[in-house]
Amino acid sequence: MPVIRDFQIQHPGVQIEVTAGNGALNLARGECDVALRATCNPPENLVGRKIAIIEWAPFACTGID
Length: 65
Prior knowledge:
- The protein is mostly loops.
- The chain has one domain (1-65).
- The protein has one helix at residues 2-10.
- The longest helix has 9 residues, at 2-10.
- The radius of gyration is 16 Å and the shape is extended.
């Protein structure tokens, strides 16, 4: 993502580790420092900003070999 690349260029001393998954990590328990979530309505206790447009597409196969 360009936003991560641009951030690393501006802040080379900050280490970024990206973990992708369907589960939500808990910011309050220190499971992560920053969460990128695909939602138009973040919970009231979080601050949300639009940083990208996400394209979604369904995929399927014709059968199992």
